[in-house]
């Protein structure tokens, strides 16, 4: 299918500094509706900072522009609208420990969207089934495995019906035997047409699931291409060096 619509996420000249230390050096990136973009690169290259700027969890320089679904990402009243459209899944799950799994998934739609409780609960059960943990609904997060907690976090993000889901190394904190179950859920999601931007060290997953892979180094977007282009025929020496080290 031809993609002619305006990009869902548009990033132009994204620059970000901590004091005198520049972390992002003028990143340009468009993400189309339904696209799955995997961001790879060495530790400290600015991957987390890049995706955290998309929903303004990090402030960025005033001459940079990010738009999500046509809305300019900037401090002010429009930011709540952006954040309602952008779901985020972190390395460390960040579930509410004092709420059941079910409540974790219900709470944002009820508080932010004013969804009635019965409707929020129906939706939450549907999402928990979708990530394969219906039977854990009444438990507290602390009683779940890391892989189960991360699947709850994905269900919780989906509950707000976001236009785009951002993932920051969602499997890096997991024991190796739990990585697969989370990647399986993400793979299934990608197949449903959800727009996803995924920072990951899982190169096999990126190769299999990404429409596009982006390699970052030193706060720059060094190279972007299809998985085949990036993994089998990288153009830049830095990309080749990184892949040689991790593959
Ligand atoms: P990655 O996710 O690719 O590992 P990050 O986006 O976390 O990279 O970090 C990019 C750079 O910014 C690193 O050099 C890191 O040390 C620096 N950095 C991140 N957060 C802060 C902060 N709050 N204050 C100062 N420097 C930071
Ligand atoms: Mg990071």
UniProtKB/TrEMBL annotation:
Residues 9-243 form the ABC transporter domain. CDD domains: ABC_HisP_GlnQ. The lineage of its organism: Bacteria, Pseudomonadati, Pseudomonadota, Alphaproteobacteria, Hyphomicrobiales. It is found in: Cell inner membrane. This is Peptide ABC transporter ATP-binding protein. Keywords: ATP-binding, Cell inner membrane, Cell membrane, Membrane, Nucleotide-binding, Transport. The keyword rRNA-binding does not apply. GO terms for cellular component: plasma membrane. PANTHER family: AMINO ACID IMPORT ATP-BINDING PROTEIN, PHOSPHONATES IMPORT ATP-BINDING PROTEIN PHNC. InterPro entries: AAA+_ATPase (IPR003593), ABC_ATPase_HisP-typ (IPR030679), ABC_transporter-like_ATP-bd (IPR003439), ABC_transporter-like_CS (IPR017871), MetN_ABC_transporter-like (IPR050086), P-loop_NTPase (IPR027417). Belongs to the ABC transporter superfamily.
